[in-house]
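Write out the bound-state structure for pyridoxal-5'-phosphate.
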Amino acid sequence: MLYADYNATAPVRPEARDAMMNALDVGANPSSVHAPGRAARKLLETARSQVSLGIGARAQDIVFTSGGTEANALALNGVVAQLEGKCTLLVSAIEHEAVMKNAGYAGVPIETVYVTSNGVIDLDFLHDRLSKWDISRDGTPVLALMLANNETGILQPVAEAAAMVREAGGLTHCDAVQGLGKVMVNVNLLGVDYLALSAHKVGGPQGVGALWVRSGAPLKPVLFGGGQEKSLRSGTENLTGIVGFGAATEAAIRDMPNLQALATRRDRMEQKLTSEAGITVFGADVDRLAQTSNFAIAGFRAETQVMAMDLAGVAVSSGSACSSGKVKRSIVLSAMGIGDDLSDSAIRVSFGWQSTADQFDTVAEAWLQAARRASLI
Ligand code: PLP
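---
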């Protein structure tokens, strides 16, 4: 099977597997003071350093969580709680549901930051809105803007947006779950206040993530208990998972130079499918992740394509992978003004550490065959 669904989950890297096997053997609680506990703590702190180095941060500012969803939930609910609700959330129209829904339940006003038709947030709109900001009426502006979109791979101007928000006295949360290991992520260059990560997108295990919090940024815990992670995330740390996350992050950063080769072949695949089948490629004209391609041809439903590709031995997903396995209309493509017919036909091909550039050619051939069989070309 050719696996081309890394944006859903990347296969576990050997470095992560080895580190996790080693951590399993430690078998102690990192909060215990005895020798086995201290050994567990050492592994935990090594992983914290590895993850922090991956984003140019200090280890002490990393809070481990149960995944990207919880990291986003902690950031949004935690800042709202610390500000006692005196804030307005500015949420980009293309955020992952982990941001969108947590923002929706945070109990404070939300405003949408629109994207232009190329899938990039409208900085003029943001600037205009912030220039009319009235702190006494609107509270602190809190922007939620992702680094790279999970469906299209389109990169967002996070540093520019965060600078505007900071100027207006606000805070920025960045969901960098799809950015880590695929583009450079540096919290200081981004100028954000909170940044969410997830292990299983970089070749670590599922169910582990982290929130980076700028020192001094307002954040109240949303889970209470034993006071782990400097009381910001109570609950015994998932040592094995965290150790895998650390090792995977280190390996992902090391392997980043290999991504350029993928971009070249990805572009070639898109050109071939455009000339032979007239596909529409989303985000073709803007900066996007080298390993992601999201495209559609009207009338060829995504489910049909995914099944046909599966039969041909190629694992891809419909535009947005959905937990229920059902295909939902993409809010990302809708936000870009893409019509339903095209949007319902979008599929996503995403590669990673185990992929070879020539696999884009295999995907192209499998897709062309499926389209021919469906008499679409
Ligand atoms: N944010 C983005 C952009 C994602 O792509 C995902 C996963 O698909 C998440 C958050 C959620 O991360 P997790 O699966 O670790 O909860």
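---
Residues 14-254 form a domain with the Aspartate Aminotransferase; domain 2 fold (CATH 3.40.640.10).
The pocket of pyridoxal-5'-phosphate is lined by residues 67-69, 72, 96, 98, 146, 150, 175, 177-178, 198, 200, 209 (CB under 6 Å).
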